[in-house]
Automatic annotation (TrEMBL):
Keywords: Apoptosis. One of its GO terms (biological process) is apoptotic process. Pfam families: DED. SUPFAM superfamilies: DEATH domain. Coiled coil: none annotated. Transmembrane segments: none annotated. Residues 17-95, 128-203 form the DED domain. This is DED domain-containing protein. It comes from Bambusicola thoracicus. It comes from the Eukaryota.
């Protein structure tokens, strides 16, 4: 009986320390980081659950509920921090940038697909659809965003507030204009706006191969 109580107390202590660690990481992340984490978790957590997220801790709790995160396995959180380039927080989980990179191929959940090595910008990387969109959003300048919004004006709500690149991509997904197997609207846009980002999308298409749909868009 005494042994059972001791074991229970140890488990409670581990759980408490784990929660304290998550709170510490939560405090180090801003609103833009939370938006990025929500975006990267869209393939793991139902969107209806993510809509109510207000903080990183909310996301951590959803990952715990879905059994993606616990005190014995924090790799997914390390991967997410790595993806949003918060390498300074990795040490709190016992990881380094290099260690996460080593484990991605075997344990990665955000990035299950390997890109073709002929795409030099993705050499030695393993990026998924979600990660590809996030990388695009990080490299779309304000000037590019204005041009993209202009080109897509027929596909966007007539009354709209100023949105970020990430929010624009999410909006296109909600409207069914952008999916894992259909990124043609991005190709049409970047053909006019950014040849470099167009190459990023082309690399993704090449990696995915025959699964793509061909749809005609008029920007």
């Amino acid at each position: 009986m005494v042994e059972i109580i001791r074991t229970s107390n140890m488990e409670d202590d581990d759980s408490l320390q784990f929660r304290q660690l998550l709170l510490l990481i939560d405090e180090g992340l801003g609103s833009e980081d939370v938006a990025a984490l929500k975006f990267l978790c869209t393939d793991l957590i139902p969107f209806r659950k993510l809509e109510g997220v207000q903080s990183a801790m909310d996301i951590f709790q959803l990952l715990i509920d879905e059994d993606y995160l616990n005190e014995k396995d924090t790799f997914l959180l390390a991967e997410l921090l790595y993806r949003i380039k918060y390498h300074s927080l990795l040490s709190k989980l016992g990881y380094t940038k290099e260690k996460v990179q080593e484990c991605l191929h075997e344990k990665g959940k955000v990035s299950p697909y390997s890109f073709s090595t002929i795409c030099s910008i993705f050499v030695s990387l393993s990026l998924s659809y979600r990660q590809m969109l996030y990388e695009l959003s990080e490299n779309i300048t304000n000037e590019m965003l204005q041009e993209i919004v202009f080109l897509l004006r027929n596909h966007l709500p007539k009354r709209r507030r100023t949105i970020s690149a990430l929010e624009l991509l999410i909006l296109l997904e909600k409207q069914g204009l952008l999916t894992e197997n259909n990124v043609q609207i991005l190709e049409e846009v970047f053909r006019n706006v950014s040849p470099d980002l167009l190459e990023t999308v082309k690399c993704y298409r090449m990696a995915k191969g025959e699964k793509f749909r061909v749809v005609e868009y008029t920007c």
